[in-house]
Amino acid sequence: MFKTFLNFNFRWFVLAKIISTFGVGVSTVGANWCLIDRTNCSHLLGIMVDLNVLAGFLASPIIVGFVIILIVSLIIISLLIFINRSKEILYNDTGDMRGDHIE
Fold this sequence. Notes:
Layout: H1 2-6, H2 8-39, H3 42-90
Keywords: Membrane, Plasmid, Transmembrane, Transmembrane helix
Transmembrane segments: 12-33, 53-83
């Protein structure tokens, strides 16, 4: 497990993830602060947060569905390419198995 942390690229990835997460948190707090500053109503802030969570719950299955379709499509395409290449390797121009015919 510690070998992963010794990888230079992984350390950059972790640093980028920390900065990205901090940025998302700051933008969320900033949007909430702006809403309270403009409206002086915490009730609207609650509604806004609820809508944000609800949108996340509704969007997640749709996005996961698209990702699953993409992954399955890539697997099927990879298998078709593998099968086609295997046929090219196993059979010669005459359709005989390689090594089965005597010249």
